[in-house]
Amino acid sequence: MIPVLAFVLIVIAAMVILIFKDWRVNSVALGVQYLAAFALVMLSWPIGLAVVKLIAGWMATAAIATTCMRQKKVESTPEPAASLFFRGLAGLLIVLVVFIVAPSLQANVFPQVELMILQAGLLLMGMSLMQLGMNSEPYLVVISLLSFLSGFEVIHAALELSTLLTGLFVLVNLGLALVGVYLVTLAGEVDNPPKEGDAV
Amino acid sequence: MTLSTPMIWVLSPIVIAGVSLVLQKRRILSLVLTSLTAFGLALLAAFFPEDLTLSLGPLTLVFDESLAVLGRQITLAYEIFPFIAFIFGMTGLWSLSGNLPGVPAVFSPTSLVITAALTAAMGVEPFLYAALLIQIAVLFSIPMLTSAGEEIYRGILRYLVLMTIAMPLILIAGWLLTGVVILPPESPLIGQSALVLGLGFALWLAVFPFHSWVPMVSQHSQPMVVSYLLFILPTTILVFGLNFINRYAFLRTSGEIFNIIRISGVVMILFGGILTTVQDNLKRGFGFSALVETGFSLLAVGSIAEGGLVWMLMLFPARAMGYYLWGYALTRLESHCGSLDITNLRGCARQFPMLTAGLLLAQLSVAGLPLLASFPVKIALLTQIMTAQTALGVWSFIGNLGLFIFTIRLLLNFVMPIDREPPRFWALTEKASEFLPVIIVVLVLVALGLIPQHIDIGLTNILTAFPQLQ
Question: Chain A partners of B164 at a C-beta cutoff of 8 Å?
Fold first, then answer.
C-alpha cells in the first residue's frame, strides 16, 4: 500500500513542479516528493540510512524556499491557461513514455529493481529533464536538478547500498541547494540593486 | 591515528582553503596561504619517497596510502603522485594571480578545494564514486564563475545542468559495466553500457553537441577563472577515464570504440577550429580553442594502440602553461582596454606590447607553433593520424589552422595604426610586475618546445598506476 501511495505522490508532485512556476507550490511539491522518494528508498535500504536522504532533501528544499521568500524577483505572475495545459500535456507524455519503457528496461537491464521503483525514478528524471528544457530561471533549474538527482537516487538505492555514497549524495544535494541559493540571491541583486542606506 | 597520503593532499588543502576563506578580507594573506600550500603540496608530491616514509631529523613519519572514509577507502598511491604534483603546482600558479583585477576573492581558496576534491576523485574506491567528487568540484566552481552583482548567464546554468546530468550516467554506466564483464561479446548490453558511459564523458568533456556552455561561460566570466577551470576539469576527467579503459578488457580491445573517440576528437578540432577563426570576442575565442584542445586529447586517447595515452599526458603541461598565459594576458588586457572585442583592441600592441605579445604567443603555443610547447606532441599526433587515417588527419590539420588564423587576425588588429587623437605610438606602458609573469611563462613555453626531453615532470609515469595500459 505504502509504495503505491508513494508512487502516486511522486507522479502528482512531479507534475505540479512541471506545470506551476510558483515557488511556494513547487517547494511544497518538492518536499512531498522527497517524502515519497524516502518511502521508495526504504524498500531497498534500512530506514536509518534512507532517512538521511529525506532529511537532506528537506534541508535543500528549505534552503531554496527560504531564499525565494526573501527575493522579489521570483514572485510569480499569473500564467495563461494554455501554457499550463501545454506543460501538463508534456508531463502526461513523459508518464506515458515511462510506462511503456520501464517494463522492458527492467527485464533487460535492471532485473533486481522493482518495477514501481524504476517507474518512479524514471518519472522524476524525465519530468526534470522536461522542466530543464523549458525553463532557465535559476530556482526552477535547481529544483529540477534536485528532482533529477532524487529520481536517480531512488533507482540507484535499489542497486547499491553504501554509506559513503549516501554521504556524497547528501553533499551533492546540499551543495546544489546552496548553489541555487547563491544564484537566486545573485539574480535578485541584479534585479533589485540595494539602495543607499539599505541594511546589508 | 595513522598518517595517510589522502590526509596530506585531500584534507589539509580543504582545511587551509577554509582558513583562507575566513581571511578573505586580507586578500594578500589569503592568496599567499593558498599559493604556498598548493606549491608546497606539489613539491611534496614530486619528492615524496617511494616507501612513503618521511624522515625529518630524529622524527620518522610513516604514511599509509589509504584513508578509510565511511567504510570505503581513498587511496593515493605513489604511482599517481606526479599527477598530483602537477595539478597542485598549476593550482598554485593560478592562485598566485588571485589578486589580478576582476578575479573574485574566492578564486584562490576555491581552486584549492576543487583540486583537493579532484585529487580525492583520483583515489576513491570504488573508483565510480569519483563522479560525485567531480560533481562537488563543479558545484564549488560556480561562485567563482559569477562574482557578486553580475548577471547570471545562461552558460553557467547550462554548465551546471550538463555536469549534473553526467554524474548519474557515469554511476549507472559503472554499475552496468560490472555486470558486462561476464557477458558474451555479442550481448547488446555491452554496447548499451558503452553508450551510457560515452554519453557521461561527452557531457563532462563538453564534447559536441554538449559544448555550448564553454564559449558562453568563457565570454562572460573572468578569464583567469575560466582558464583554470578549462584546464583542471578536462585534465582530471581524462585521467579518471583511464580507470575504465584499464579495468574493462572489452573497452580496451574494442577498435570501434576508439575509432568513435578518434572521430569525436576530429569533429571537436574541426568544429572548434572553424568557430575560433570567426570569433570577434577574445574570451569567446578562448572557449572555442579549449574545445579544440579537448579534441586533441580525444584524438590521443583514440590512438591508444599507437601510444596515444603518452601524448595525451605530455600535452597537459604545455596546455596548462598556455592556458595560464592566455588567461593572464586576457585579464590584464581587459583591465586596460575594457571590452575584449577584436575591434576595440586595434592598435593595442602599440600601448601594451608585452601583454599582447604574451597573448599571441599563448595562442600560438596552444595551436602548436614550432619551437613552442605543444609543437612536439601535436606534430607527432597529427603525423600519426595522417598515416593511419589520412582523411581524419587532413580535417584535424584544417581545424587546427583555425587558431592560427584567429591569431593572425588578432595580430593584424593589434598592430594596426588607427586614426585617433592622440595617436597611439609604440611605447612600453606596462609595469614590470605586469609583464614579468609573461616573460617567465613564455620562456617556459619555449623551453618545453625546444627541449621537452629535459623537462620531464614524470607525468607519463602515472600510467604505471594502470597496469593494463602500460
Answer: 145, 148-149, 176
Measure in Å the smallest separation between the Cα of A86 and chain B Cα atoms. Answer: 23
Say which of B135, B142, B152 has its CB closest to residue A172: B135
* Residue B47 domain boundaries: 1-125
Q: Are residues B311 and B385 in the same domain?
A: yes
Task: State the DSSP code for B95.
Answer: H
pLDDT tens-place string over residues B281-312: 999 999 999 999 999 999 999 988 888 898 99
Distance from CA of B410 to the nearest CA of A (A): 33
Pair (B133, B279) in one structural domain: yes
B153, B154, B163, B165: best to mutate for the A interface, most A CBs within 10 A: B165
* Total domains, chain A: 1
Q: Is the pLDDT of residue B242 over 80?
A: yes
Backbone angles phi, psi at B416, to 5 degrees: -60, 130
The verdict on residue A198 lying in a domain is no
Listing from the earlier edge strand, what are the strands of the sheet with B72-75?
B66-69, B72-75, B124-125
**Whether residue B90 sits in one domain with residue B227:** no
Q: Closest by alpha carbon to B292, among B276, B269, B321, B312?
A: B269
Average pLDDT, chain B: 88
Q: Is the residue at A68 inside a domain?
A: yes
CB–CB contacts below 8 A, A to B: 91
Give the tens place of pLDDT for each residue, B100-130.
888 888 899 999 999 999 999 988 888 888 8
C-alpha dihedral (A137, A139, A141, A143), degrees to nearest 10: -150
CB–CB contact B154 A136 (8 Å)? yes
Indicate whether B186 and B222 sit together in one domain. yes
DSSP for B303-353?
TGGGTHHHHHHHHHHHHHHHHHHHHHHHHHHHHHHS--BGGGGTTHHHH-H
Domain boundary among B97, B125, B153: B125
- Nearest-Cα residue of chain A relative to residue B152: A187
- Residue whose C-alpha is closest to residue B237's, from B117, B69, B361: B117
Which among B84, B106, B125 is the end of a domain? B125
Distance (Å, rounded) from C-alpha B119 to C-alpha B318? 20
Instruction: Mark whether B94 and B142 lie in a shared domain.
Output: no
Same domain, B36 and B151: no
Cβ within 8 Å of residue B457, ≥6 positions away = B46, B82, B85, B86, B317
Residue A18 falls within a domain, yes or no? yes
Of B76, B223, B156, B131, nearest to A164 by C-alpha is B131
Contact call for residues B230 and B218 (beta carbons, < 8 A): yes
Q: What are phi and psi of B210, to 5 degrees?
A: -100, 25
Which of A159, A164, A186 is opposite residue B146, by nearest beta carbon?
A186
CA distance B423 to B409: 22
CA dihedral B358, B361, B362, B368 (to 10 degrees): -170
* Same domain for B131 and B112: no
CB contact under 8 Å between B160 and A159, yes or no, is: no
Number of domains in chain B: 2
ipTM of the prediction: 0.90
Residue A200 covered by a domain: no
Q: What's the whole-model pTM score?
A: 0.91
CA atoms within 13 A on the CB side of A82: 0
Residues B100 and B135 both lie in one domain? no
Q: Which domain holds residue A64?
A: 2-73+84-187
